[in-house]
Amino acid sequence: MMEATKGLYILNAGFSFSKGSLNIKLIFFKCVVLLLCHFLYFRRHPTGGSFIRPNKVNFGVDFLTALKNRYVLEDGPEEDGKEQIVTIGNRPVQTIGFDSIIKRQSQLNKLEEISLRNLAVNGAGDKGGIAKACPNIRKVDLSRNLLSSWDDVIDIADQLKNLEVLNLSENKLKFPSGSPSLIGTFSTLKVLVLNQTGITWAEVLRCASGWPVLEELYLESNNIFISERPADVLQMVKLLDLSSNQSIDENQLFLIAYLPRLEQLILSDIGISSLHFPDAGIGCKTSMFPSLQYLVVNDNQISQWSFINELDKLQSLHTLSCMRNPLTAGGKDAQTTRQFIIARIGQLRTLDRCQILPEERRGAELDYRKAFGNEWKKAGGHQNPDKNRPNEEFLAAHPRYQLLCLKYGAPEDEELKTQQPFLLKNQLLTLKIKYPNQLGQNVLEKQLPDSMTIQKVKGLLSRLLKVPVSELQLSYESPKMPGREIELENDQQSLQFYSVESGDCLLVRCS
């Protein structure tokens, strides 16, 4: 390094005396040498760094200083009730009593929820200062600060006896190599957010003994690898977020499958593509994840229906979010995909944040039953229960199909005939129309397109009966489900949505 620097010095010196007659070759040679030295001595290194002036560095402030900087207002004249002008964005806004709101925030001893996000907090500060100044804090956002170790967190939390929610995201924390002494420190903590903190699974388990009542744990983007099963820790956890940890696979998930209270599991963007519960056969329920009700698997590599089939084995699952996966994205018919997911998971009540109404479930299951009816017959399925023996391959691909046949009856040959979808005559439904509350009215028979909305059906009947549309109530009966009447309550949906078929009977009542 010294030789190179010395060479540059001589080169610079020689060059400085040749200003009168610029030498192009010398300039070019100088540039090459400068670039080479920069590459050799100043290139970035994984464990390297840069020199910077001390007065340019922010070394941070303690917790209490940051709290006062954000929430404490200097004493001044009382201005409650007076009009003030504040700027929001680029617009001036008139406010009345705004000052009193700020002053209420300034009473530190009454604060229960605070955010110190991105305020360069580096530690607790003077011992006992936090407990004395703000003893009633329950929720703290300390994300994106300068906390460097778990000991700093303990020093803060130990003074907040009512702490329930703590967000430490984006602090590069050093966690203890052994079990920390945490008796009472996090005794009331219910929600802990550790996104992008660099924590490992082993460190989670070591620290978790100090979180006796923790209910929600967020571990997004930590390169987590689940290496061992939680033993006597995390037993109260109801929500676990493992999103954006690309090392997690289905075998690692089985290590957390027996957390007794786990109700919500968030697995977005972990790269998972397959899932199989080895303890449960076709049509059976797994003993894994016994309390799991809410599952999020967005932004993964799910491309096979076998993944969805396995989810039907979960005992308690009723809410699923499966967006932006190869199976549910691309050029496929989104509505058909949604119907098939609903039909394959019998207990599902919400899919991709949309509630599944009973009418939608019935329509989805009937359409699914019809869509795979020919495949079922080729595999050995039959309308006669004594001859109905589809092979194992079909049952593995469609575990609920036999149950749907019991629920709605086996598909008839007429249903399974291939239709020409673009001919209008193949889209018309022949329906009977009855008026249960009007004795003496003849039963009519009409042909209506299956795409016709309930609103338009009501409009047609309004003209026939000379009754306002608002007074009409529609339902229908199907010969396939004798004794059951299904309401057509959503005017914007079509007859096809409600799975109305030729031969069904529309029931018309006037309110």
UniProtKB/TrEMBL annotation:
Subcellular location: Cytoplasm, Cytoskeleton
Record's keyword terms, sorted: Cytoplasm, Cytoskeleton, Leucine-rich repeat, Membrane, Repeat, Transmembrane, Transmembrane helix
UniProt superkingdom: Eukaryota
Transmembrane helix is among the record's keywords: yes
Domain Ubiquitin-like: 429-508
Stretches that traverse the bilayer: 20-42
GO annotation, cellular component aspect: cytoskeleton
InterPro entries given in the database record: Leu-rich_rpt, LRR_dom_sf, Ubiquitin-like_dom, Ubiquitin-like_domsf, Ubl_TBCE
Annotated SUPFAM superfamilies: RNI-like (SSF52047), Ubiquitin-like (SSF54236)
A biological-process GO annotation: cytoskeleton organization
Function in brief: Tubulin-folding protein; involved in the second step of the tubulin folding pathway and in the regulation of tubulin heterodimer dissociation. Required for correct organization of microtubule cytoskeleton and mitotic splindle, and maintenance of the neuronal microtubule network.
Quaternary organization: Supercomplex made of cofactors A to E. Cofactors A and D function by capturing and stabilizing tubulin in a quasi-native conformation. Cofactor E binds to the cofactor D-tubulin complex; interaction with cofactor C then causes the release of tubulin polypeptides that are committed to the native state. Cofactors B and E can form a heterodimer which binds to alpha-tubulin and enhances their ability to dissociate tubulin heterodimers. Interacts with TBCD.
Entry protein name: Ubiquitin-like domain-containing protein
Origin species: Diceros bicornis minor
Lineage: Eukaryota, Metazoa, Chordata, Craniata, Vertebrata
